[in-house]
Specification:
The chain is an alpha/beta fold and about 400 residues long. It has 2 domains: about 150 residues, Nucleotidyltransferase, domain 5; about 180 residues, Exopolyphosphatase. Domain 2 (Nucleotidyltransferase, domain 5, 2-Layer Sandwich). About 40% of the residues lie in helices and about 20% in strands. The protein has 16 helices and 12 strands. Strands 1-9-8-7-10-12-11 form a 7-stranded mixed β-sheet, sandwiched between helices. The longest helix is centred in the middle third of the chain and has 25 residues.
């Protein structure tokens, strides 16, 4: 297994993700919230106050939607603006395992595509029923990497009416930051926000900004909980030592891929006041175990600050447990039991790079970033229901 390299991501339907061997990183232009463009004054120069009030009221009641088709999950949020925030009026999440087997074959399997299409049909019905004004639907690493990713996107459009945009790793990182940065622990020093996905992990170095943080540096590596698990192998061995050796291999692979980013942020990581915020199923699951919750509770987890040492202790414990024992733990179950160990390996490697004392936990990310972009008037795809992409 010592010869493993990150899965090849150069085949992405003509979309460049940058970097050698699938790694993407570099400087990112600063971004800020944009206010919605104001309605133009009538040609005759008259101003109708009542018409303005009606427009403002209508805009507040409009529904917006964000759909994120990842390597492991399909998630949808539908919301209405509420002041500077929004209120969720409908949501959907299903484990679809779109990237299962992709590391070995380079293709999305028929079974995986069928699972994803089943979930997307549910999303399409919700978009129509909620009369969504604006929506953006994105696909990430699995579709970026698969040789048949573009064909799958066309099949989704034909069968569901949903137009998926295969976003770059850079855009994925930007949306994750936009969606969860509000939960970053207060402070003046540099911070890292990360998103452990199914097929990739994004890390973003930021500094405080006026309304949103300024991105200083970023990296994306093609190791997520699915791709890392499939590459190292799903067989965990019969003994604790076997499982520990497998975990060490995961840590080695991830650390090697993180090395260029780690070198670039080394000086910043030595600052006195560094902060760390993570968004992913891995960090929310481990936070639930830290709290000893009998079942997952988003209200208890979203925004929680956990000692980094506690997250390491839980990661190390999970890495040596048998799959059966992990399945028996609250908040893990069957869906996460086989993948959470890879998430732990990625998380520990991130904490090696950025040794903050505490870890902020976010149960929000790309979808919330999309919603904030749409509601703030950022450029977005064409309007209406399921066909908004």
């Amino acid at each position: 297994m010592a010869g493993h390299s990150p899965p090849d991501t150069s085949r992405n339907s003509g979309r460049k993700t940058g970097g050698k061997r699938g790694r993407s990183s570099g400087k990112v232009a600063d971004f800020r919230y944009k206010r919605p463009s104001q309605s133009k004054t009538p040609l005759n120069g008259a101003v109708d106050p009542q018409a303005g009030l009606l427009r403002d009221h209508a805009s507040r009641r409009q529904a917006y939607a964000a759909l994120d088709l990842g390597t492991n999950n399909c998630r949808l949020l539908i919301a209405r603006p509420e002041g500077e925030n929004f209120t969720v009026i409908d949501a959907f999440s299903r484990v679809v395992r779109l990237g299962e087997g992709l590391a070995a074959s380079g293709r999305l399997s028929d079974e995986a595509m069928d699972r994803a299409l089943g979930a997307l049909q549910v999303c399409a019905e919700k978009l129509k029923r909620r009369n969504v004004f604006l929506a953006r639907s994105v696909a990430t690493e699995a579709c970026r990497r698969a040789v048949n990713g573009a064909d799958f996107i066309e099949r989704v459009r034909a069968e569901t009416g949903i137009v998926l945009d295969i976003i770059s790793a850079q855009e994925e990182a930007r949306l994750a930051v936009l969606g969860c940065h509000i939960l970053l622990e207060q402070g003046h020093g540099p911070a890292v926000i990360f998103d452990i996905g199914g097929g990739s992990t994004e890390l973003v170095l930021i500094e405080p900004g006026e309304r949103v943080p300024r991105i200083i540096d970023w990296a994306s590596v093609p190791w997520g909980v699915v791709s890392l698990t499939d590459t190292v192998g799903r067989g965990e061995g019969a003994t604790q030592e076997d499982r520990l050796e497998r975990y060490r291999e995961m840590r080695r692979l991830v650390s090697e891929s993180f090395a260029p980013f780690a070198e670039r942020v080394a000086e910043a990581s030595r600052a006195v006041d560094i902060r760390l915020l993570g968004t992913s199923g891995t960090v929310t699951t481990l936070a639930s175990l830290h709290l000893e919750l009998p079942q997952y509770d988003r209200r208890a987890v979203d925004g929680l600050i956990v000692p980094a040492e506690s997250m390491r202790d839980i990661s190390e414990r999970l890495s040596t447990m048998s799959p059966q024992d992990r399945r028996a733990l609250p908040c893990i179950g069957n869906d996460r039991a086989d993948l959470v160990v890879a998430g732990c390996a990625i998380l520990e490697s991130i904490m090696d790079i950025w040794p903050a004392d505490r870890l902020g936990v976010a149960d929000r990310g790309i979808r919330e970033g999309i919603l904030r972009s749409l509601m703030a008037g950022d450029p977005a795809p064409a309007r209406t229901g399921a066909r908004a992409g």
